[in-house]
Amino acid sequence: MSNAFFRGRRLRRTPTIRAMVRETPALAAADLIMPYFVVETEDAGFRKEIGAMPGQYQLSLQSLKEKVGAAVANGLKAVILFGIPAKKDALASEAYNPNGIVQMAVRMLKSAWPELYVITDVCLCEYTSHGHCGMLTPEGEVQNDPTLDLLAQTAVSHARAGADMVAPSDMMDGRVAAIRGALDAAGFTQVPIMSYAVKYASAFYGPFREAAESAPACGDRKAYQMDPANTREAMREALADIEEGADCIIVKPAGPYLDVMRQVYDNFDLPVCAYQVSGEYSMIRAAGLNGWINEDAVIMESLTGMRRAGAKMIITYFAEYLLEKGLVR
Ligand code: PBG
Predict the structure, then answer these.
(1) Helix (H) or strand (E) holding 197
(2) How far apart are CA 131 and CA 133, in angstroms?
(3) Which residues line ligand 1 (CB under 6 A)?
(4) How many CB atoms sit inside 10 A of residue 265's CB?
(5) 110 catalytically annotated
(6) pLDDT, average across residues 201-229
């Protein structure tokens, strides 16, 4: 269709008119979720920068408290926690230990800032000696059904510690139903599940595995995380989790999967959360540190893309930084 009268530039002339016609609402502090890595350590002041993620840290409980305190003062509303236990074993015992590192961190954060929304990542890979997200057979295959009970116990222990929401990221089949059933049976009917329903087996998680010390000792996660080439399967994964009781759906990674995010948004009426993962963070930060890009503008543009694709919430390692710099309020 050609229209000789159309001049797109008329509505782009000034910042005011651009803001007036802007389709995607500006990001707000309430949309951002900041991930933190909390380490079980005797060294109270422990704070170690992650090599592949400049500006991100492994933190002791006390260091976490200081960091979150500053972020809350800048307007941070929500966090997602990952734990690094002092000891790992084949049964991931520390994942569901009532006094495990994440459980302690939840209690500490909720008592210091009751209004801070604390989400926990529910997975076993940071707690198993072999680094896989579930129990292994002697042959080294991840067992689905025996893993479900441990995931459910983990989620309930997080809820008991005061977690506002749990986010299972393991990609076992049936885990949302198992977790929902266990939460309800324990009296936590009000704790929502934000399911990593659409989680791809992605090389973009590389830096995270350094941060969380969770790289699999052998093999990879392709037998449980999704094949990056698939979109229709993503709809089946989302539908399965919704039918099992998921309250929100995460698409992960975010940037390379905006088409999938848009399809999830179009097909289902649950809130969609984008996870801008470690590798996406590291690439933007590295280029920024080298002066190759305008980092702040690239961050905002990358997040706007996710919002355009249908995400409401965004988990991003830039959350703290954006609030500190006043780029998001
Ligand atoms: C745990 C988990 C991972 C991430 C979030 N939860 C790692 C993985 O699946 O290997 C990745 C997050 C990131 O890269 O920022 N299963």
Answers:
(1) strand 194-199
(2) 7
(3) 121, 123, 125, 133, 169, 205, 208-209, 221, 277-278
(4) 18
(5) no
(6) 95
